[in-house]
Design a protein that fits this description.
Elements: H1 3-10, E1 18-23, E2 28-33, E3 38-43, H2 53-68, E4 74-79, H3 99-117, E5 123-127, E6 131-132, H4 134-140, E7 144-148, E8 154-155, H5 158-161, H6 164-174, H7 185-191, H8 193-202, H9 208-213, E9 219-221, H10 224-239, H11 243-253, H12 255-276, H13 279-293
Parallel strand pairs: 3-4, 4-5, 5-7, 6-8, 7-9
Antiparallel strand pairs: 1-2, 2-3
The structure holds octanoyl-coenzyme A.
GO molecular function: delta(3)-delta(2)-enoyl-CoA isomerase activity
Protein name: Enoyl-CoA delta isomerase 1, mitochondrial
Subunit structure: Homotrimer.
Length: 299
Amino acid sequence: MHSASKVLRVGFSRFPRVLSVAMKSTNVSSNVCSETGIGTLMMSRAPVNGLNYDFLKDFREELEKLDQDKACKAVIITSSVKNIFSAGLDIMEMVKPEPKRLRDFWLSLQDMWNVLYTYRLPTVALINGHSPAGGCLIASGCDYRVMLDKTYTIGLNETKLGIVAPFWSEASYHFQPASIPRFMDAFVALVGTRQADLHLQLGTLFTPQEALKNGLVDELASSEEEAREKSVAAISKFLAVPGFPRYMTKTSVRSQITARFVDGRDNDLETFLNFVQMPATQKTMIKYVEALKAKKPKL
Ligand code: CO8
């Protein structure tokens, strides 16, 4: 019997037997279900799964570990933090940064992204909470997205933070635009150029219904259990296709984006370092953090 049929036949028990558990840090953990061969990568950095250096490194390492686990056939990425998938980059990494740490931080984001976007196994983002900015980036890097239809939001809201949009537009002006990798490329690939143009400028955070309409997510679910079932069903479809041609096709469709990323990542790093350390950027970010702590940002 084909492995995909096996997954369908076994179904997804609410309490599946866990074949292997990799628990290295409290940030990110992973396990593989012995019945389905489905790996789960769990993000658990309270309070908001902020992507700091350690989290990004752990995330990449857990992904690589699952890839090397022969029992693992596909990966679901989700969160154990209530109402939060991920709030994106940990802004504190960029406020009054120490230069070496800042460099390592951005390199860890690039590395994580590179592994996720070119991942050999099928990946599904089970978006069970808010997913702004870097949270949306993680979801966009997967092959399929199932989102809980609750009062959550998802999107790239960087312009509203006043940081990344000036960064990328400044970058386009000052530093060879063609060679700059844009993490927003994956978002453009999902929602289309026109909608991306509009919503990246506006820093729109979509409701789940809007995200579905715009192609940013593939399915909605009314409960965590249903989201899990839909994620497993999506994986079964991926696994019904022979693995190598499926992976080669994924690689091929994403090749322009990944090539631009690989070619431009050094330039991207220097641009990021210059931008973040500019006094004006620091001023904006400090204000944003203050507003966040005072619960003022309007998402
Ligand atoms: N970084 C650091 N700390 C954060 C972040 C963050 N991204 N988000 C929230 N926090 C902190 C809060 O300040 C608060 O701290 P404290 O307890 O000390 O006051 C704590 O986490 C809990 O936050 P909330 O009380 O706000 O939690 P809620 O459950 O009420 O709200 C939200 C959750 C909706 C996620 C809310 O926290 C929020 O809106 N956060 C900001 C999200 C955001 O703007 N993220 C952008 C980060 S920049 C980024 O990711 C760039 C990505 C680049 C990708 C490329 C794009 C092109």
